[in-house]
Automatic annotation (TrEMBL):
GO cellular component terms listed in the entry, alphabetical order: cytoplasm
Pfam annotation, one family: RCC1_2
SUPFAM superfamilies assigned: RCC1/BLIP-II
UniProt repeat feature RCC, residue ranges: 99-156, 157-204
Name listed for the protein in its UniProt record: E3 ubiquitin-protein ligase HERC2
Entries under PANTHER family matching the protein: REGULATOR OF CHROMOSOME CONDENSATION
GO MF terms held by the record: guanyl-nucleotide exchange factor activity
């Protein structure tokens, strides 16, 4: 696997394979190869909340110290079979094996829940997102979140986004309920969300970005931010013509392209 990265690099954290002697390194402003290592399996560049699932009960701890000291946790029993659990700025979201999406978090930022809190389904308790049920292109297969924005990808390669528009510069038409996102009428096969930016990978291997670029996280030199989807010129980024982007990852203020070579 070949790994390309761009964005926040204040502590040389994007220098994967070698240590840099630069005491005050610059951010990386365009996608740059940082590793060629077939042993790399996953890339997880994010700040994580502590969460544990055990025997059908979801346990939420206030901190890692609480977990290690066996302090009481907030529990949600009889939870469905969860395949993904993600954290955003003010809450959490979970994806079940059947494609159902559950959200919970701070009621003051109810727009991130994608549902209307009620006495029967309060904000701080996992509740189903009804607008992601019975979608025309199949169930949700991937869930991502960052900052105040969440995104869901369906089995039929449709993308849905929602969140707190006032807190995020990612999309100009961001809604508080899941809404389809159209990018040049293309099928979307992967998506990643940072604190205030987003990336999308299309079925034909193109990469589009939107949001904040103050640290170069969009890989667009000279652009401060954008609220419209902008295509990355991969021809000027990838070293070999046969290399193709197969996955995306976003940290809070940086982005990664997972690149593999096509078989001979």
């Amino acid at each position: 696997m070949v790994l390309y990265a761009t964005g926040f690099n204040a502590w040389n954290q994007l220098q994967v394979e070698e240590n840099s002697s630069v005491d005050d390194p610059d951010d990386i402003s365009s996608f740059t190869c940082v590793s060629r290592n077939d042993a790399i399996e996953t890339v997880l560049p994010f700040f994580s909340y502590t969460r544990v699932r055990d025997n059908g009960t979801l346990h939420q701890y206030a901190s890692i110290r609480n977990l290690l000291s066996n302090s009481p946790s907030h529990t949600f029993p009889n939870f469905p079979d969860i395949t993904q659990l993600v954290a955003y700025e003010t809450g959490f979201a979970a994806l079940s094996s059947t494609g159902q999406v559950w959200t919970w978090g701070d009621e003051r930022y109810a727009a991130c829940l994608g549902r209307e809190p009620s006495d029967d389904s309060p904000a701080d308790t996992p509740g189903l997102v009804p607008d992601l049920e019975d979608l025309p292109t199949g169930p949700v297969i991937k869930l991502v979140a960052g900052g105040y924005v969440l995104a869901a990808l369906t089995a039929g390669n449709d993308l849905y986004c929602w969140g707190h528009a006032g807190r995020s510069p990612i999309l100009h038409d961001l809604s508080d309920t899941p809404s389809p996102v159209v990018i040049d009428d293309k099928d979307i096969v992967d998506v990643a969300v940072g604190d205030a930016h987003m990336l999308a990978l299309t079925a034909d291997g193109e990469v589009y970005v939107t949001g904040d670029n103050a640290n170069g996280q969009l890989g667009l030199p000279g652009v401060r931010s954008t609220t419209t989807w902008t295509r990355i010129d991969l021809g000027s980024v990838l070293d070999a013509e046969e290399a193709v982007v197969t996955g995306l990852v976003a940290g809070p203020r940086n982005s990664f392209l997972i690149v593999r070579k096509q078989p001979d």
